[in-house]
Design brief:
The strands form three sheets. A six-stranded mixed sheet has the order 6-7-8-3-9-10, with helices on both faces. It has a four-stranded antiparallel sheet with strand order 2-1-4-5, with helices on one face. It folds into two domains: about 210 residues, P-loop containing nucleotide triphosphate hydrolases (Rossmann fold), CATH 3.40.50; about 70 residues, Alpha-Beta Plaits. It is of the alpha/beta class. The protein has eleven helices and 14 strands. The protein binds adenosine-5'-triphosphate and magnesium ion. The site of magnesium ion (MG) has 3 residues, from α1.
Length: about 300
């Protein structure tokens, strides 16, 4: 089953071109789904549409197998916790007092305040005012508030934006724990592939309002391998290219390197041997990490 299913979503702001073009999205129940895309790709717009914060113009949204409409919105929102952009935190209040406000709004049992503080690792902050919290702590307080009403689905828009490496790890571990221990489905957006792939089980990639890829993380890794390359740095790249072109027709010289598609190690060693035997010096052999850009290029090819 899918926690969220969106079909054919298109959205345009007044007077603008569409910022989402017929996108489809499936977030499997129990997954941690990474929604990945560069700045301006349409991540926040999509998440706001899914939560009913923007009025849907075209397409279909189903949440927990129910159509998301004015009739079902309230009951569905009871099952969703969300944090879109910065958490709203009362800086003159402690973590507990911040959460007591939301506990009253959500009308959930008082004991949930202590429980969620424990969950996000803020139980020990006592009377310390939220204004004195680090960005990571504020972010965790925001997540605690989103968890108060025990949702089945958590929607987080770039929750690690602006955090330092240790803050990023803290949030990542917290989300993994929530998913593992309470089975909560998590939809999280990010513009950093390296960061998201350490966390997610499934991934959707959006660029300029178009979905480029959706599927399990493993499948993306496979595609990424296909997009990978091997780079040779030699004393004469052009002659090296001529030597290996017949056996490796996809090889090419790019700036000061001879680039080939991903190859087994034995093939790399054989090329190296051939070049050296022909009197070409090999200064380096590298396998550049395929970044988001390379993957985008490969996916849109
Ligand atoms: N209120 C608005 N009015 C007009 N255009 C908007 C509005 N909000 C966003 N846009 C445009 O819609 C596109 C998608 O924006 P969106 O905020 O969804 O991207 P994003 O993927 O969340 O980017 P970021 O990583 O910067 O948060 C952008 O081109 C943006 O300029
Ligand atoms: Mg955004």
């Amino acid at each position: 089953m899918n926690a969220i299913e969106a079909h054919n979503l298109t959205y345009r702001f007044p007077k603008g071109d569409p910022v989402l073009n017929q996108i489809d999205l499936r977030v499997p129940t129990g997954s941690i789904y990474g929604f990945l895309g560069p700045n301006g790709a349409g991540k926040t717009t999509t998440l706001r549409l899914l939560l009913g914060l923007l009025r849907k113009q075209q397409g279909e949204i189903r949440v927990f197998d129910q159509s998301f409409s004015s009739r079902t919105r309230i009951s569905l929102l009871h099952r969703i916790g969300s944090l879109i952009e910065m958490p709203s935190v009362y800086s003159h209040l402690s973590a507990t007092d911040n959460l007591r406000i939301w506990q009253k709004v959500y009308q959930c049992p008082e004991k949930r305040v202590g429980e969620v503080l424990e969950l996000v690792g803020l139980a020990g902050t006592g009377a310390k005012k939220a204004g004195k919290f680090s960005l990571g702590m504020k972010q965790r307080l925001g997540i605690a508030a989103a968890l108060l009403h025990t949702p089945d689905l958590l929607v987080l828009d770039e929750p690690t934006n602006g955090l330092d490496p240790s803050g990023i790890i803290e949030i990542r571990e917290l989300l993994k724990k929530l998913n593992r221990e309470s089975g909560i489905t998590i939809l999280i957006s990010s513009h950093l592939l390296a960061e998201i792939e350490k966390l997610v089980t499934d991934i959707g990639i959006i660029n300029k309002g178009n979905m480029l890829f959706e599927g399990p993380l493993n499948e993306l890794k496979l595609r990424r391998q296909q997009a990978a390359s091997v780079a040779f740095e030699t004393s004469d790249n052009q002659r090296a290219l001529n030597l290996i072109r017949e056996a490796h027709p996809e090889s090419r010289v790019v700036s000061d390197k001879l680039l080939l598609p991903a190859l087994p190690r034995e093939a790399v060693a054989a090329i190296n041997r051939k070049l050296v035997e022909d009197g070409i010096d090999v200064f380096g052999i590298t396998t550049p990490e395929s970044d988001l850009e390379t993957i985008f290029m490969h996916l849109t090819k």
